[in-house]
Amino acid sequence: MRAVPDVTQVCNPNQSAIVMRTFENLLPKLVTCLALLGSACLMAGEVEVLHYWTSGGEAKSVAELKGMMASRGHSWKDFTVTGGGGQNAMAVLKQRVLAGSAPAAANIKGPTIQEWADLHVLTNLDAMASFEKWDEVLPKVIADQMKHKGRYVAVPVNVHRVNWLWANSAVLKKAGVTALPSSYDEFFAAADKIKAAGFIPVAHGGQDWQDFTVFESVALGVGGAAFYNNALVKLDRNALASEEMRKSLNVFRRIKAYVDDKSTGRDWNVTTEMVIKGKAGFQFMGDWAKGEFLAAGQKPGADFSCSPAPGTAKAYTYNVDSFAMFQLKGWEAQKAQGYLAYLLMGQDFQEKFNLRKGSIPARLNMKMDKFDDCAKTSSKDFVATSKAGTLLPSVAHGMAVSSAAQAALRSAVSEFWNNDKTTVGDTVAKLVAVAGQRQRQ
Ligand code: BGC
Prior knowledge:
Blueprint: H1 13-22, H2 26-37, E1 46-51, H3 56-71, E2 75-80, H4 87-98, E3 105-107, H5 111-118, H6 126-131, H7 134-137, H8 140-146, E4 147-148, E5 151-152, E6 154-156, E7 160-161, E8 164-168, H9 169-175, H10 184-196, E9 200-202, H11 208-223, H12 225-233, H13 237-240, H14 243-256, H15 268-276, E10 280-284, H16 288-295, E11 304-308, E12 316-319, E13 322-325, H17 331-344, H18 347-357, H19 373-388, E14 391-393, H20 403-418, H21 424-440
Parallel strand pairs: 1-2, 1-3, 9-10, 12-14
Antiparallel strand pairs: 3-13, 4-5, 6-13, 7-12, 8-10, 8-11
Helix pairs in contact: 1-17, 3-16, 3-18, 9-10, 11-12, 11-14, 11-20, 20-21
Bound molecules: beta-D-glucopyranose (BGC).
């Protein structure tokens, strides 16, 4: 526990309400308060938090947070909107904020943080950030995404790596696959063996965000980091229309032949369960999938394996879950919200939460000894790819482009996956149109 005051120990609501509104001088004033009155001034508040963490592993992770809030007397109100990847949650959040009843905090990521901050509905966290030295304890690439016009408006809780391939060890063994595939030639050879052995080679949930999760890993593996960055992050017209894009779409379509026919609409965690239970060999998914393997009592390296998606070992697509704090009325609510922001950035929370969530801490210099080898690899590769210039934001998970551009890319790729009559040429034309859309913004 850090040597900072307990922010539930507050005794002058009127003065502190003003303080809390901007978090200015919050902690020094609380120190004074605590020194004067000690625990006699305990007052607790409620935080309503929008998230979409409803699968087995996710629920266990969020339970850590609820427990920590409760241990300081604050109550937690779940505002859960089911739906992996958070699209549904973002739609419901819009309705709530427009209706004037924003939650205290919401899991919002990447450029969407900027879109909300532009509407002047987020709380400025700068005073807490400077007191707690967030600039020093966060990688710059993450800190920058948490800021709007240079001011902190969101708090990062983790780094998920998206470009992973998960595998069931027993299925691979029974199929005679002796090494994890590091190229698509190896991948398809392994998939053929798994199919011949009577298993489903690739577990895939047919939802547009899952289609795009697979596609971006394929594009990275087939076209390389520079292509990924130019085409999918910068939305460069030439890169979107390039030969690499055509090749990526062709490989992506080839994977479909290895997916079972009940894939349509299936949730990602139900899909991961197919790998956990030994029905399927592989799944392309970010490391929230590891949270499911762990929640099912499985061990990495023994029951399942994590390896970078084919061709992507030297690159890293990152996805940072972060909580934006909305402006609230009322001292109690502001106080609980302030404590939540403080807690989320603490080492204790970041360790406990990420051990369950499958991700790694967003904070730098955290001890990794309690983490498994998948997390250790992720942590090492985050640093190495950051130096090599191959650390890239995940497009599928809202880290790279505006929500409108993301939706347009997602819809073109999903249509290509679902409709075999849609040609590579049709899809390239739709993707190139997204470049035009960006220029108009
Ligand atoms: C989020 C993860 C979440 C996953 C499945 C991702 O976009 O960042 O926290 O577990 O979607 O819902």
